[in-house]
Please model this.
Amino acid sequence: MALVKDSLLLHAVRGTLGDQVTIYERNGQIIMAKKRGKSNKKPTKKQEEARYKMILAAAYAKEMLSDPALKAYYKSLAGPGQNAYNMAIKDAYHSPEVQNMQLENDTVMVTAKDEFRVAEVNVSVFDAAGKIVERGKAVVGRNGVDWYYKITGLPPKGEIVVSVVDLPGNATIKKLPINGS
Model:
């Protein structure tokens, strides 16, 4: 790959030349690279999964960038050589992470992290029989990482299920058993 600077010849040229070189522009820079050819190998299952995930991420990015506020948000996070579309794909490709989850008295505290932004944290409380007792949305703390949910009727046994969701809708689910005292 070569970056082209101040070339009158290539100033207006874009595309593939002679089935060997591809010329394109990215963030105002002209780039020349060897044309990639198709692989003769059959893709592995992992490669096919990654391709499918990328198709979904690209579809998300296209949809999200139609919202001017989200486009501005992603653009503000872009570094040199990146744009809002790149950032939206990166966000859609990775799920949020639950770093910590604990129950103190009747409050569930969840520490959730995403490279971009955690959109919401949903909490569901189940009794020992697996029947839902209550559910609701947690409230973000002052630090922007910890989320809190106050349980109104904590069963003696059961489990708490937390779902952390980012802007693209990727969810990470974590469970915490309730052991009666």
Summary: Residues 64 and 70 are 6 Å apart (CA to CA). The two ends are 65 Å apart (CA to CA). The helical segments are 45-64, 68-77, 84-93. The mean pLDDT is 86.
